[in-house]
Amino acid sequence: MTVTGSVTVLVTGATGTTGGRTTARLVAAGHRVKVAGRRGTPLPGAEPVVFDWYDPATFGTALTGADAVYLVPPVGDPDPAAVMLPFLRQARAAGVRRAVLLSSSAIPEGGPAAGAVHRALPGLFEQWAVLRPSWFMQNFTGAHAHADSIRERGVIQTAAGAGRVGFVDADDIAAVAAHALTDDRAPGTDLILTGPEALDHDGIAAIVSQVTGRPVTHHRLTYDGMRDRLTALMPPEFATMLADMDRAIAEGAEDRTTDAVQRLTGRPPRDFRTVAERELSPHRKPALSGHEE
């Protein structure tokens, strides 16, 4: 795949797990990047703009001059289409030609949350892609409840049982996003993104234990126990959706790997041990903050 010239990309969720990494790749490749966030936080080489999904008055300035947009749904909103679709219609009217949506392997077209945006995207833009990554490896190394519980108590709590997941490196997601946003032809489809192997949470705990030298165990919760635990931290609808995802993992829904990272980037995806050694070693660089699942 080749790119004929630089483009201007608006990155929403720019301080998040994939947004920051995607921004860095786009800047390094010579593209102009506008990084959108409620506080207009600057990132190296990019132009900060104030943007809030829930404040349409911020849409116009953010979209000015943008050729493409990377869409990270608002965190914790069970119905992001309500705010995202008006923005996308305004983006099309403003001249944006391409949109790449971050969704999830667990959410099909027309499904809950970002699934409704996925369904609408092809009707709004000729150039589009939907990234449907599996669960992030950074959930165990960065700013996430699993990583926090590993650091604080040496445990991972899920209702996923022995279900396996093709966990994916956020750096690999960002590499795919950068290609989807800037290659001459957008994928025009949804892409299931995984790492090279499917692991259960017992396997994740074992690798983290080996890399850090600290014992980590996987505590298997019931579905009700997981839902109630999450409800104490977030809106009930979102907590239920996440607990449902764990139950789906337990039933085998995420036990798969794909070649999408290899096809889009030209290199194989990284395995979890490599990422754990990179991000959990004593001399690692600070992890990017973020909340995307």
What does the largest sheet look like?
A: 7 strands, parallel
Distance between the termini: 28 Å
Overall shape: it is: globular
Query: Can you list the strand order of the major beta sheet?
Result: 3-2-1-4-5-6-8
What is the percent of helical residues? 25-40%
User: For this entry, what is the oligomeric state of its chains?
Assistant: single chain
Mean pLDDT: 93
What structural class do you assign from the helix and strand content?
Answer: alpha/beta
Low-confidence stretches: 285-293
Count of beta strands = 9
Radius of gyration: 18 Å
What fraction strand?
Answer: 5-15%
- The topology string of helices and strands comes to EHEEHEHEHEHEHEHEHHHH
Number of helices: 11
Q: Any overview of this molecule?
A:
The protein has 293 residues and is of the alpha/beta class. It has helices at residues 17-28, 59-63, 81-93, 115-124, 145-153, 170-182, 201-212, 223-231, 236-250, 260-265, 272-280, and strands at residues 8-11, 32-37, 47-50, 68-71, 98-102, 127-133, 155-158, 190-193, 217-220. Strands 3-2-1-4-5-6-8 form a seven-stranded parallel beta sheet, sandwiched between helices. A two-stranded parallel sheet has the order 7-9. α3 links the parallel β4 (68-71) and β5 (98-102).
